[in-house]
Structures are given as structure tokens and as C-alpha cells.
Design goal:
Structural class: alpha/beta
CATH architecture of the largest domain: 3-Layer(aba) Sandwich
Largest sheet: 5 strands, parallel
Number of domains: 3
Distance between the termini: 32 Å
Number of helices: 20
CATH superfamily of the largest domain: P-loop containing nucleotide triphosphate hydrolases
Shape: globular
Number of strands: 14
Strand content: 5-15%
CATH class of the largest domain: Alpha Beta
CATH topology of the largest domain: Rossmann fold
């Protein structure tokens, strides 16, 4: 399913296009003229736009120019009358994928062209398909990141990804892998924060049968499992110093020794690391090896926090809602909810935004999320001089409210989880995950 925008001032044509594409499972938004289309393109994220060339207000060429400048990854198909073919060709020079002449002769021709445009867009701009909603396209800072990703992916250089927790560092690592010549080989991730000194060598380098108590069979480590592909070290700053030395040796020699093994094993992996910590500061205070830092930071990439790209909040929320609600239609955001999201701080970045929306979907009473469903408290005003601030009464946490909603849904559905998930408007897999997390199992 893709998010499509259909812009045409002819209500009959617009309805025909929207109905045909919705039957194919796409999420279709409509615009009755070019000005409305441009407003939607500024506020929402779409995968493809179908736009008539002649419309009141802004016309189809204005739509094409806007996308060419601000969102070149979005595919565009223009609709034109026979006499406007020359203008349609000009639109293609500006980046439109193709044009359809009106009146449309067959729904299948429309479906085929939309399918081709979406496939071409995913190939030309694979990052939009691979990194998901944590890396929306609106902010200039994120466009710089996506450009850097496309460049570094073609090389074999080691990459260090920096950014706050929840900004999507692993998504960037996966995007680099998926755009690289190693894309068909494994992408293996390891969280350094959970690697103890006892587990480190076995997890990374593997072990031979009988090398220690419990080693009943030989086992490959992460380096071997990632052979030919990419090995991603998340939270690299959490490695203890002695373990940093062992990792550095493996990176320098491109060889590993299994625990209990007698012969070194050559490995071919592309290494990407990530952290939310200040590594240069850690190098200065002696908690991170300088030689390992320079080995990792051949190409450093910084992911800006959500607070620095607020124009991405609403497009991200729209995409996340569609994913959370699958296979049901995506819930909508009321204007109050949109305002609340736009003004929230989100110190937990994209991860916090998704968690918030998941809870809101469970608690909402209808198909439109209201500001109250988000439970986002407004920022407290600064007290006047000498004014005492009353202590707020404690209220139920979102976790407690979510658990209560799940319990109620299960009770009303007689224990049938499929019906309970449907009543809450969330995917069955998401429902199972939440049941397990709350111990309702």
C-alpha cells in the first residue's frame, strides 16, 4: 500500500481515480485544486501524486515544480487533455514520471502506470523505502543525511553514526547497507550495551565445540555471520576498554580467532557503528580508545534530533499511524491533535512519537485521534515572581491506561484476541506484543 494524492478540479475524474486506486489497497487523499494539493504536500507525506495540469489557483505545473524542489523522491503522474501534451512533456523534463491523457480509457492503464512509477521511485530513491518514518524528507538537515548516505553506501568505508537515542541510527545503518554492493549479503546488528566480557569473544568471534562448559557444538560469531555483508555495532561507546582492544585488533587484521580455535579466520565485513554519546570527550577522559575512535570514524554521520526538524513531526506521525493501524484504514489526526504533536518536545525522538501514537490508537474512542487521546500535557507557564506553584495531583500513566484498555477489550471479546485487537483498531501482531509486555498472557 502506498500513500497517493489525486489532484483534479473535475469531481468525476477525481472520484474515478481515487476509487480505482483505493480498490488496489492504496491510501488515497484528494485535492479539488492545485492550491489544496500544495497545502497537503507541505503538511503530509505521499509516495506518488497524480495531478491534472489545468486547475484553478495553482496548476499542475506548480505541483510538479514544488515536488521537484522540495520532494524529488515523490513520483508524479500528470493528467492532460490532448491539446496539452506539449505541456505534459515539459512536466516530464521537470521530473514527472509520465502523463495520462483524458479521458482515461481503462482503469488497468492507470494501475499499470502507478505501479511502474512506484517501483521506479523505490529504485531511484531507495532510502525512502528502507529507512522508514524515522527519517522523513521535509527537513533540510535530513536531506543532507540522505545524500550523505547515498554517497557513502557506494564505498567500503567504516561509518560512525552519531545521534540522540530514538533518532533512527540503526535505520540509517540499514539504509547504507541496502544501497551498497553488499545489499544481498547479511546485515547483522549487535548491541554493545549487553556484551559482557564473558560473552564478548564468543558472540563476536564464535567458539569451537568443547572450548568451555556448555559449548556442545561449534558456533559462528557475528563476524562470520555477517560475511560479505555489514556488521553494525550499536551503542559502541558502552564497550569496556579491554573489549575495545579486542575489537580494534579484529578490525585492523580482518581476522578473528574463535574461542578454542587454533587457526585464524579471515573475514570480509563492512563495519558501521553508532552511539548517542560524545566519543571525542570519552577519548579525552580515557574511557574510549583513541585508535579505535579513528578506526570507526572514517565517515561520521550525525542524525539531528526531532526537536531540530519539527517540520517532520506531522509527516512522520501520518506514516506511523498507517503502520500501527494495519490492516485497518489509518486513523486520522484532528487539528487539535496535530497542534499538540507539533508543539510537543519529544526528547525520545521518533521512538517516543511512535510509542505515543500506539497508546493513543488503543485509547481512542473513534477513527479520529483527538488531542486528549495523546495525553500530551502542555508546557507549564513560568510562575510569576513570588508565586507558588501548586503540585499537580498524580494521574494514571499511559502504561496503566493502555493495560486497562487491553484488559477491557479482552473481557468484552470473551478472550478472543483477534476480536479484541479489531475493537481497539490495531494490528493483531501489535496486540500480541502489547499483551506480552503487560503480562496478560
Amino acid at each position: 500500500m502506498a500513500r497517493l494524492l489525486v489532484a483534479d478540479d473535475d469531481a468525476g475524474v477525481r472520484s474515478f481515480l481515487a476509487l480505482t486506486l483505493r480498490r488496489d489497497g492504496h491510501d488515497v487523499s484528494e485535492a479539488a485544486d492545485g492550491s489544496i494539493a500544495l497545502r497537503k504536500l507541505r503538511d503530509e507525506r505521499f509516495d506518488l501524486v497524480l495531478s491534472d495540469l489545468r486547475m484553478p489557483g495553482a496548476d499542475g505545473m506548480d505541483v510538479v515544480r514544488f515536488l521537484h524542489e522540495h520532494s524529488p523522491e515523490v513520483a508524479v503522474i500528470v493528467l492532460t487533455a490532448h491539446a496539452e501534451v506539449k505541456t505534459a512533456v515539459e512536466a516530464m523534463r521537470l521530473g514527472a514520471f509520465d502523463f495520462l491523457q483524458k479521458p482515461l480509457e481503462s482503469p488497468q492503464a492507470l494501475r499499470d502506470l502507478v505501479r511502474q512509477a512506484l517501483a521506479r521511485s523505490a529504485t531511484t530513491h531507495p532510502l525512502s523505502a528502507s529507512v522508514g518514518p524515522a527519517l522523513s524528507w521535509g527537513a533540510a538537515s535530513m536531506k543532507a543525511v540522505t545524500l550523505a548516505v547515498s554517497k557513502v553506501a557506494r564505498s567500503a568505508a567504516t561509518v560512525l553514526i552519531l545521534g540522540e537515542s530514538g533518532t533512527g541510527k540503526e535505520l540509517v545503518a540499514r539504509a547504507i547497507h541496502e544501497q551498497s554492493p553488499r545489499a544481498k549479503q547479511p546485515f547483522v546488528a549487535i548491541n554493545c550495551a549487553v556484551l559482557s566480557s564473558e560473552l564478548f569473544a564468543s558472540e563476536l568471534f564464535g567458539h569451537e565445540k568443547g572450548s568451555f562448559t556448555g559449548a556442545h557444538a561449534a558456533r559462528k560469531g557475528r563476524f562470520e555471520l555477517a560475511e560479505g555483508g555489514t556488521l553494525f555495532f550499536d551503542e559502541i561507546a558502552e564497550l569496556e576498554l579491554p573489549l575495545q582492544a579486542k575489537l580494534l585488533r579484529a578490525l585492523e587484521e580482518r581476522r578473528i580467532d574463535r574461542v578454542g580455535g587454533s587457526q585464524p579466520i579471515a573475514v570480509d565485513v563492512r563495519v558501521i557503528a553508532a552511539t548517542h554519546r560524545d566519543l571525542p570527550a570519552m577519548v579525552k577522559n580515557g574511557t574510549f580508545r583513541e585508535d579505535l575512535y579513528y578506526r570507526l570514524a572514517v565517515v561520521p554521520l550525525s542524525i539531528p534530533p526531532l526537536s531540530a526538524r519539527r517540520e517532520d513531526i506531522l509527516p512522520m506521525a501520518e506514516v506511523m499511524l498507517a503502520k500501527i493501524c494495519e490492516p485497518r484504514p489509518a486513523m486520522k489526526l484532528s487539528q487539535g491533535a496535530r497542534d499538540a504533536l507539533q508543539n510537543a518536545s519529544f526528547p525520545g525522538n521518533a521512538r517516543e512519537l511512535r510509542n505515543l501514537l500506539e497508546r493513543a490508537v488503543i485509547l481512542a474512542d473513534g477513527p479520529v485521534l483527538q488531542a486528549a487521546d495523546l495525553n500530551l500535557a502542555p508546557a507549564a507557564p513560568e510562575p510569576a515572581a513570588g508565586e507558588r506553584v501548586a503540585t499537580a495531583a498524580p494521574r494514571e500513566t499511559l502504561e496503566q491506561l493502555e493495560r486497562a484498555a487491553i484488559e477491557r477489550a479482552l473481557r468484552e471479546a470473551g478472550g478472543n484476541r483477534k476480536r479484541a485487537a479489531a475493537s481497539l483498531g490495531i494490528a493483531l501482531r501489535t496486540f500480541y506484543d502489547k499483551v506480552a509486555r503487560h503480562g496478560l498472557g
